[in-house]
Model the fold of this input.
Amino acid sequence: MKRNYLKGLLSAFAVGLMGFGASAQPNVVIIFADDLGYGDLSCYGNPTIATPHLDKMAQEGAKLTQFYVGAPVCSPSRAALLTGCYPKRVGLHVGVLSPNSKTGLNPKEETIAELLKEEGYATACFGKWHLGHHDKFMPLNQGFDQFYGFPYSNDMSRKEQLKINPNSKYKYHLPWLDQRDTIAIDPDQTNVTQKLTARALEFISGNRNNKFFLYLAYPMPHIPLYASEKFQGTSPRGLYGDVVSELDWGVGEILGLLKKKGLDDNTLVIFTSDNGPWKVFKTHGGSAGPLRGAKGTTWEGGVREPAIFRWPGHINGGQQITDVTSAMDILPTIAKLCKAPLPSRKIDGRDISSLLLSNESPEERPFIYYTKMGKLAGVREGAFKLVADGDAYYLYNVEEDISEEYDLKDKKPELYKRMMSLMHELDAEMNREAREVGRL
Done:
């Protein structure tokens, strides 16, 4: 009887532990690369860039193959990730912000950091911000406790522009910030990846007994490319490969520390990038793999990105998820998993936690394509994509025809007509509901 009683107690204790684990709020780490292409990781088919840590992350988690970002350039894409909204909804859809911009992410918008901070999370943004460099738009006023990095792109520097063109009239400088303090102007970027990784590791170690949200937005492999001495000349892909290999190392350091600190099973780690490769810089730009186009275009190569989600014990390893998903889905998914309320304002993303945790596909939603300057450029519904190239429109089945080579509009005129109508209908709704960008 005693044995049965003890057995019952142990069973009840085990059930209690399971219940505690199921109800706990996980830590969240988002690692966001800059201008990394769909074909730049070995687990997405690159033949010469070795990314063993990201490959292992994909083996231990879920690799998404039809994951879209909100725009084919930096600022709008980052706005979409952090707010769960199309850039047009939050007024940040027209190009990228520059050092003379007087706009930014409206402080009235609610970011992932703000949602989680309300739940008691420690929050940090390390790396590239690029959502407005004036104080009211910066990370410390958008839900982050800590900021360490650049307010905008690493090429927005007089020092770097003079390397490209010795006669350049570019007058702006690139500050390196720690909180609100400028600790360097136009810094040597050779060790940027190392420094950001070190700060990320410090943040994780310092919050190992707390809930935390880390947004690690590496400025690489956006040009100008820089790798530390340890990684220079190590990749057959040249400097670009060296840079991506160092990012992969950084991911490995973070995953290794989470395991060492016993945080592995309670931390959701997401890796992706802001837009496709900047091919205009030739070997200093990345690869979109089998996808057509690159950064700045609404071809698949401009907006479809590698995306890996890892949460041991919750997300089954070795999955390849082919459902259409987007960076805008990250906010509502994190809100669900962390038991945080959604923003009070309307968002466009949807919760895909059931897809990640139990392979149950959420309700499909059309995806709207906008150009780098915020112009309506197409729509995806199911396997089909309607897309503009200048004034001409084309129709593709991008599951059968991943490289967008075979136009179907003449073969499927009714579908073409319906998707044209759908595209304009969705955009008209967006125009009616669009909110004000943040202004000085």
